[in-house]
Design goal:
By secondary structure, this protein is of the alpha+beta class. The chain is built from 32 helices and 11 strands. Strands 7, 8, 9, 10 and 11 form a 5-stranded antiparallel beta sheet that branches. It has a 4-stranded antiparallel beta sheet with strand order 3-4-2-5, sandwiched between helices. A two-stranded parallel ribbon has the order 1-6. The chain is elongated, with a radius of gyration of 35 Å. It starts with a helix and ends with a helix.
Length: 767
């Protein structure tokens, strides 16, 4: 009994260590990717995801509110946010005056160099009489505008105010739509959006800060906010709620079933201690190997109890009655069958782990560690634990009528027909889904709010972008400029709502020199006189304007923009990936086929959709997982062949599981429901559990068919209830898992007595 007492202490320590040391993540990228990919598009997509995850979009609605009150409120709100330790920066949809002046001062010397993508044509049009008149009108309007002093200072260096042309191109890309009664703010935090604890606390403080200011100023303004971190926090809460809801309901149902079947609170305590230690070891092992445990792994892993509990239940049914001194020897009789059953399950999980899918790798490690722990505890701790707690069990569940079902021959023929039909249906109608949305809770209310807030902004679609690459930055910029001309055509045709290129923030040296050459060619005495006449027609004194002069400024380089107001706005669009350089063009809403057609025609220019890439990668994972699952089943068959020295006996043990999977798969096909990655996991779980039942039933090592069928029946009902509880989760994939595993387990259990008679059990038990 000393071993049992030490185990109780160890179980408590393991549970405490699990609660204190386990880091849980819910970001779906952590479930899909290892983070070691070197593909440039993957890196850019992750970079964009990380940057966007730090940002909040704040929607402030104030219809009919006095504009001064709105101004005072937003100013106070912005100042409070700026002083918040979590916030890196705050800005509005419109550029602040001081930032705008700094940008104008920075780009004033390069107004000629960054004037146009097609300078030869643009400067030719600029010096036509009509265009000069339009330019004179713009100059007059600017002088009569809100900041004439700034305009006068610009005219001293830029008599045609060509800097305004650069500014207008920049403002076209700003993320704010001018809407009455609505204002927007952007917040960027120091921490990543996937740092759930920090973001959750900040979101609560953000709501509190707004409420406090609204009460003080009494502005009548309402606030909504969105962002990747908002979804991350909501998913975290939803997954945590799923884990708590599923585990609580599953635990409650299993406890009721256990107490009803065994009528022993002490037996329940013993099994609970074993399962607590088993899950703790699984969690700690997974966290140690991967550095974290994903929420989906925990949600799926909570059902591992339904697999691992089979071993102690089977052992307790056989050892729970009679002399307590013989419990260890009775469990040792069925120990070989449990080893084979556990080994077949581990093989299946490890096969999926070799698919390369990080989520399945975690699940494989989690499950293998749990199963091995449950087996060892059942063999070497459970006998002493039963003696320590003085457990005497007499299961009330009686299913002896299943041992000799009437009409066995007729049932076997019907099963054969159903199997063939199910196989044909599964092959002909089964289709797979690569929709990643099913891996996360639906969150429809948040999605609607997000769409509403983003409708006020110039749209930029996360995860959709174009890379213009080159061996040098100059080459990458040239490729980007060729692309921009084509994208502008799509925008004018309505195929592309908006796009965010690197020009006019930066241009290739070639384009800058072309602009300078085209300008210098047009700056003549005749051009000066024509410009003077245009000014005079607007009532402006030409002598107050300095003369037009050729440009002789060196091209603007990337290094000149560092530590400037422009760098935070464009740094995520200038990349060096290995020995390659690239510029990134973010895209608004667009016709994917039209944009792809443009990029396909340009060398070193590629369109990427992170969602499409993730879907394609998931499809690859699924195909590899299917292949590995088949190899795993083959390995299980070989293990059974080695165990029984008979291919026929090995196939017979697999038959109930195989028929069960065929019928479940056919059911999904008939329902026209697509199956995803977690369905594959569900099929594996059902197969693993059913193979265990086949092994236990065929070997009958305890020598009592009645005890064996009792143990299997209790395990089957326990597992089915455990997996059925997944149906209460908010994550759609977990619903599908419930409808895959629970019926598969029950059907596999019912098929064992029909398909596996006992004529060879004596010989097998002697092996």
């Amino acid at each position: 009994m000393a071993r049992a007492k030490w185990f109780v202490l160890l179980a408590v320590i393991l549970v405490i260590a699990t609660l204190r040391l386990t880091q849980v993540r819910t970001d779906i990228n952590d479930f899909l990717f290892t983070g070691k990919a070197t593909d440039s598009a993957f890196l850019v997509g992750r970079m964009q995801s990380d940057e966007l995850s730090r940002r909040y979009l704040i929607s402030l609605t104030h219809p009919g509110v006095d504009s001064q009150k709105v101004f005072d409120f937003i100013l106070a709100f912005q100042q409070e946010l700026t002083d918040h330790p979590t916030v890196a920066r705050v800005w509005s949809g419109k550029t602040a005056d001081d930032a705008l002046e700094a940008l104008i001062e920075l780009y004033l010397p390069y107004r000629i160099h960054l004037f146009s993508l097609v300078p030869e044509d643009t400067f030719t049009r600029l010096f036509t009489p009509e265009s000069l008149d339009e330019q004179a009108v713009k100059i007059k309007q600017a002088l009569l505008g809100p900041d004439p002093m700034l305009v006068n200072s610009l005219i001293a260096k830029d008599p045609m105010l060509l800097t305004l042309n650069w500014l207008s191109q920049v403002e076209q890309r700003m993320q704010h739509k001018d809407m009455t009664g609505y204002s927007s703010l952007f917040i960027e935090t120091h921490s990543s959006g996937t740092d759930i604890a920090v973001q959750d606390a900040f979101q609560q403080e953000l709501r509190g800060l707004f409420q406090r200011l609204e009460q003080q100023i009494g502005s009548g303004i309402s606030m909504e906010f969105t962002g990747i971190s908002v979804f991350a926090v909501a998913i975290k809460h939803a997954v945590s709620a799923d884990i708590q809801r599923v585990s609580s309901l599953s635990l409650f149902a299993i406890v009721l079933l256990f107490l009803w079947v065994f009528r022993s609170l002490r037996a329940l305590i013993a099994v609970a201690l074993l399962m607590a230690a088993t899950v703790s070891v699984a969690v700690l092992t997974t966290g140690w190997l991967f550095g974290f445990v994903h929420g989906l792994t925990l949600a799926l892993g909570s059902t591992l109890i339904g697999v691992c509990i089979d071993y102690p239940i089977h052992a307790m049914v056989h050892a729970g009655q009679g002399d307590s001194g013989q419990r260890s020897s009775r469990i040792s009789l069925i120990w070989p069958a449990m080893i084979i059953g556990g080994a077949t399950t581990v093989i299946g999980y490890m096969a999926l782990g070799f698919s390369g899918f990080p989520g399945l790798q975690q699940l494989a490690v989690f499950s293998a560690a749990g199963i091995l722990t449950a087996l060892l505890l059942t063999r070497f701790v459970l006998p002493d634990l039963m003696n320590l707690l003085a457990i005497d069990m007499r299961p009330r569940l009686s299913v002896n009528w299943l041992l000799d079902p009437p009409g066995r021959t007729w049932l076997l023929r019907m099963i054969f027909v159903i199997s063939i039909v199910s196989l044909l249906l599964g092959i002909s109608q089964l289709h797979w889904s690569t929709d990643l949305a099913t891996l996360s809770p639906a969150l429809e209310e948040l999605k609607s709010k997000d769409q509403m807030i983003r409708s006020h902004l110039v749209s930029m679609e996360p995860g959709r972008f174009i890379l213009a690459e080159g061996d040098t930055l100059e080459q990458a910029l040239q490729n980007s400029e060729r692309l921009q001309g084509r994208l502008e055509q799509l925008r004018q045709q309505g195929e592309l709502e908006n796009y965010f290129p690197i020009f006019p923030w930066l241009a290739s040296a070639e384009l800058q020199l072309r602009n300078e050459k085209a300008w210098n060619k047009k700056v003549t005495v005749d051009a000066q006189q024509a410009f003077n006449r245009a000014l005079a027609r607007e009532g402006l004194a030409a002598k107050a304007f300095p003369p037009l002069s050729p440009s002789s400024v060196a091209p603007l380089e990337q290094n000149a923009l560092r530590n400037s107001q422009a760098w935070p706005l464009i740094s995520n669009q200038l990349l060096q990936i290995g020995n390659k350089f690239a510029t990134v063009v973010w895209l608004g809403r667009h016709d994917t086929q039209k944009v792809r057609a443009v990029t396909d025609e340009l060398p070193q220019v590629n369109y990427f959709s992170q969602k499409d890439s993730m879907t394609a990668l998931t499809e690859q994972y699924r195909e590899r997982a299917q292949s590995m699952l088949l190899l795993g089943l083959l390995a299980i068959l070989l293990l059974l062949f080695w165990r029984y020295r008979s291919l026929l006996q090995a196939l017979r043990v697999l038959l109930p599981a195989a028929v069960s999977l065929l019928v479940v798969t056919a059911g999904w096909s008939l329902a026209a429901a697509p199956m995803g990655m977690l369905h594959l996991v569900g099929l594996l779980l059902a197969a693993a559990i059913c193979v265990d039942y086949g092994i236990f039933f065929m070997e009958n090592r305890g020598g009592s068919r009645q005890l064996t069928i009792q143990a299997i029946a209790t395990s089957a009902f326990t597992s089915a209830i455990s997996f059925s509880c997944l149906g209460v989760a908010e994550t759609p994939a977990l619903h599908a898992l419930a409808l895959t595993v629970a019926p598969g387990v029950l059907l596999g259990f019912l098929l064992c007595p029909v398909m596996l008679d006992q004529q060879n059990s004596g010989r097998i038990a002697a092996i």
